[in-house]
Amino acid sequence: TLFNPNDEESFGIVRVVDRMGQTAVQRRYDLRPHQTRLYSLADLKTAESPGEALAIVPLQQPKLRDGGVVVVRNDSDKASFAYTLMKGRQGASFTVEHPLHFAADSPVKPARATPYGPNRSFPAQALLYTPMLFRGLRLGELQLESRFYLSSSRWQEEALWMLPLVTTSEGQIAWASNHDEQLSKRVAPAGLTGQGLVRLAEFQSCRIDARGLPLPDGFSGGFGVATIPKTSHSLLKVEVRAVNWGRAAFTHFRPGGASAKAYRQADGRGGLASDYIVSGVHVIGNRANRRRDCLLALMNIEFEEDQAGTPKLQLFGPSGLVTEKHLGDFPALACRHLLVSELFPEAQSDPAHPFTIRMQVANAMMIVSALHLDYERHDLALEHGSDRHSTFQDFKC
Q1: Residues whose CB is less than 8 angstroms from the CB of residue 91 and which lie 6 or more positions away in sequence, other chains included
Q2: pLDDT digits over 103-128, tens only?
Q3: 226 and 148 in a common domain
Q4: Domain termination residue (choose one: 255, 282, 305)
């Protein structure tokens, strides 16, 4: 969906490119002030209603069968906004993702022949994470699976080099692409790999399925990507599927490294290394008749320094702080998954007033994301969580 929030018209070109970066279909758009328009991404035909846009129809562009990237080029003074509404071919729900703005005409440097430094070192310029890796994790009646979608946009250099890795609950590296001779078999398309890395040219994209990684069944952990040159966390997506519910949800990664460290400089932060928020948290019903719950995914993203973190979780309701809990040490890169109903067994939310959870960590950079579970509707939703000061820093609220 394209939306023009401005008091002036917005116009340009929207196109869909396949995973190799080739345009499959494109259309011009012209939006009046405050106008919204819905498109079917398979052919960019306009739709009169969400039901029409999300209808399951035969795919006319075979090269889009495995996905791709939407590119909106704005040619007017005022830029429009775009959102993707993604519906699985099973189940009745859909999930929403937002885009990222880039300067279209910025100069781009030539691609590097290799990103490696001396002794095959990889001097990462950006570190990005999601704590939502599941490979057949069973959670009561649920079985959870993850897939990851990496894309490049058009930004600093003609090629984006990416080193993906998987971490355990204790912070060990369970898998890293540059130590895997079978990497090309784990990335689709296989041709977007080289030198033990993922290599994406302009607007290319690829998929990594947790099922295809050398991990044991029932595994859960963290997924990180080191990149050269820098890139944005919004270009990397995670999909979590509840297999037996036939439902899926998307969100994007979280920034680490220098980007995460910059939040420490916010006024009024009090020196906290991490101050994260997730909202919309529900716990309704007891163990025998659970109606709503939330799986928290906590990850220590201290990659460059071996710094353990000891998070404190605070549960807030409509009247303020309800309760809090101190967790044990999380070694660097450790990622763990905890049900809110087990962390706070006495807590029950009002259906109209969900909880908010705040995570504070004094001395280590950590992130917390949420998988919201609705056992009545057999549905799920993902929230990546945000540092409490990131919005203030980005938008000067």
Answers
A1: 245, 246, 247, 248, 378, 379
A2: 777 889 999 999 999 999 999 999 99
A3: yes
A4: 255
